[in-house]
Amino acid sequence: MRFEKLQLRGLRCISEASLDLSPGFNFFAGANGAGKTSVLEAAFLLSHGRSFRSGARDALTQRGAAGLSLFAGIRHDDQRLVRLGLGREGARWEARMDSESVAIGQLVRECAVVCFEPGSHALIAGGAEERRRFLDWGVFHVEHEFLATWRRYQRALKQRNSLLRKSATTEEALFEPWEQEMARAGALIDEWRRRYLELLLPHLRDQAALFLPELGNLELRYRPGWTEGEELLALLAIQRTRDQARGHTTSGAHRAHWSLSFAQAPEREHLSRGQEKLVALACLLAQARLDAQIRGEWPIVCLDDLASELDQAHQASVVESLKGTPAQVLVTGTDTPGALERVPARVFHVEQGRLTPLL
Question: Does the record carry Cytoplasm as a key word (predicted)?
C-alpha cells in the first residue's frame, strides 16, 4: 500500500499542506523544529489512532487552530483507492472512510504504517507495555476478531477490578461471570499472540543478523501474563483475596510480556543504547516484512531523523534492505543521508511548517 496524497491541516506547526508522494522513497529535509516529523506523525496517526510522541495528545493541534484534520488517498496493491480522514476538535476524534463515518478501529485497519523514530529504543529498553502494544498492533492487522475480543477482555477486567476495590467479599457469584469472560477472551488473545510471534521470529532473526551480526543467535521469550500451564479461570479464583488486597488483577492477558535475547547479550542490560536502537529497528522491519507476507502488500515505512539515529553503515543497510522491496518509505533529516544520494527519491523542503517539493 502507499499514500498517493497526504493532506494536513492544523497539525502542530503545519497550517496546511498537500503532498503528492512517490510510491518509493520520499525525503523531507529541513532544520530541527521545521515540521518534518509532523508528516510522519500524520501517517502514524492514520495507522494507530495515536501519536508516537509521548504526551503529544494536547500538543497535536496547532496553536490557535480550532482543530486538526488529516486526509489520505491510500492505493492498495490490488489498485483499490481508499480515501481516509481523521479529524479532531477538542478531545473528540472523528474518522471517515470514502466520505462515510467509521470507527477509528476500522480506519486504522485500512492503513498500516511502521515507524522508526528517536523514541523507538523504548521497545527494547522500556516496560512490557511498549512490547505488548507492538505485538498487539501486529496481531490486530492479521486477526480480524482481535479488537472485539480485546475489548471484551478489557471490559471484564475493568469490572473485576471495580469489584476488588469496592466489594468487601470475594463471593464467587459476583466474580465468576467476569472471570469466565476474562478467561475465554484471554485464551484467544494468548493463542493469537503466540501464533504471531512464531511467524515473526524468522524475520526477527534475519533483520538482527543484518544489523547486529556480532550479537549472535537471537531467541524470543514469551510469557502469557499468568503461570505457564495453569488455567487462567482457576488462577483468578485462587488469587481473589490477594488481588483484593492489592486493588487490581495481577494475572491475565493484560500482563503478558515478551523479550529478546542474543548469544552475546543474554539480557537487555548487556545492550548499548545504539544496539537497543538497532534491535528496535530490526523488530519494526521484521513486523513490516511479516505484514507484507500475510496481507500481500507492504505497510508504509517511516524513518524519522535517520542520519542522527544510525551511523552511515547502518543507514546504508536499511536503505539497501528497503530498496529491494515495493514499500513506500518516508524519511526525514536535516541533510540528505549519504545512503539516499544514489536512490531515486522525491524530496521535500520543510521550513516553518511549509512543505515545498524540490524533485
Answer: yes
User: Model confidence at 145, in pLDDT bands (50, 70, 90)?
Assistant: very high
Residue pLDDT, tens place only, 76-117: 999 999 999 999 987 789 999 999 999 999 999 999 999 999
Give the pLDDT score at 275.
95
What value does the mean pLDDT take over residues 114-125?
94
Q: How far apart are CA 74 and CA 326, in angstroms?
A: 15
Alpha helices in 141-264 (DSSP H): 146-166, 172-211, 232-238, 240-246
**Where does a domain end: 296, 314, 340?**
296
- Look up residue 65 and give its DSSP letter: -
DSSP character for 298? P
Asked if the model's pLDDT at residue 66 lies above 90, the reply is no
Residues marked as binding for ATP?
A: 30-37
- Parallel, antiparallel, or unpaired: how do β-strands 68-75 and 2-11 relate? antiparallel
Q: Is residue 136 part of a domain?
A: yes
Number of domains in the chain: 2
Same domain assignment for residues 101 and 153:
no
Number of residues written out for the chain: 359
Q: Once rounded to an integer, what is the mean pLDDT over residues 241-255?
A: 96
Domain final position from 244, 278, 296: 296
For position 313, which CATH number holds? 3.40.50.300
Q: Which residues fall within 8 angstroms of residue 195, CB to CB, at 6 or more apart?
A: none
Alpha-carbon gap, residue 281 to 151, rounded angstroms: 29
In a domain, 255, yes or no: yes
Same-domain check for residues 291 and 312: no
Same domain for 268 and 160: yes
Q: Report which of 303, 328, 302, 329 is spatially closest to residue 315, judged by C-alpha positions.
A: 303
| Domain hosting residue 17, numbered range | 1-112+299-359
Annotated binding-site members:
30-37
pLDDT per residue as tens digits for the range 174-194 = 999 999 999 999 999 999 999
- Whole-prediction pTM: 0.94
**Would you say 117 and 305 are in contact if contact means Cβ atoms under 8 Å apart?**
yes
Q: With CA atoms as reference, report the closest residue to 185 among 227, 246, 143, 248.
A: 143
Please give the Cα distance from 268 to 275 (Å, whole number).
10
Same domain (yes/no): 179, 73? no
